[in-house]
Design brief:
The protein is α/β, with parallel strands linked by helices. Helices cover 34% and strands 19% of the residues. It contains 5 helices and 5 strands, in the order βααβαβαββα. It has a 5-stranded parallel β-sheet with strand order 2-1-3-4-5, with helices on both faces. Helix 4 links the parallel strand 3 and strand 4. Helix 3 runs parallel beside helix 4. The radius of gyration is 14 Å and the shape is globular. The chain binds 1,3,4-trihydroxy-5-OXO-cyclohexanecarboxylic acid (DQA). 1,3,4-trihydroxy-5-OXO-cyclohexanecarboxylic acid binds next to loops.
Length: 147
């Protein structure tokens, strides 16, 4: 059975490729989305990707995921460390949610070490660059196959 998974990328991730490549790598957001779609195809998973620089748009997209997708991969970017609104939206979901960060937020500035999502998601994958998104897809599939 085909599974539908939504991927939400937060602010400034549209600038990947040129944005601090020493921290975030050389891959563009289009590269990451293409890799996710390909990875999904080999596992019978349909991947839909969405990026926004706006907190409210991300909240709306999370709400709209209800009944449409079976899993969510989210990199809320800077909103990770600030957004109770995104946390509350994630709490509306019963599907597995995996939080991804390209960089290892735990070995960066202290303000990046706290995530408003980490205790309301199935798990967090940090520090593996673009590979982390593919790992997140597999983690969601694993959860779906168990349930
Ligand atoms: C990030 C880490 C955040 O602290 C930062 O604000 C980002 C990207 C990451 O993927 O490593 O924009 O979420």
């Amino acid at each position: 059975m085909t599974h539908k998974i939504l991927v939400i990328h937060g602010p400034n991730l549209n600038m990947l490729g040129t944005r601090e490549p020493e921290t975030y790598g050389a891959a563009t957001l289009a590269d990451i989305n293409a890799a996710l779609v390909l990875h999904g195809q080999t596992r019978d998973v349909e991947v839909t990707a969405f990026q926004s620089n706006l907190e409210g748009e991300m909240v709306e997209k999370i709400q709209q995921a209800i009944g449409m997708y079976e899993g969510l991969i989210i990199n809320p970017a800077a909103y990770t460390h600030t957004s109770i609104a995104i946390r509350d939206a994630v709490l509306l979901l019963t599907m597995p949610v995996v939080e991804v960060h390209l960089s290892n937020i735990h070995k960066r500035e202290p303000f990046r070490r706290h995530s408003y999502l980490s205790d309301v998601v199935a798990g967090q994958i940090v520090g593996f660059g673009m590979q982390g998104y593919l790992m997140a897809l597999d983690a969601i599939l694993h959860i779906l196959q168990k349930s």
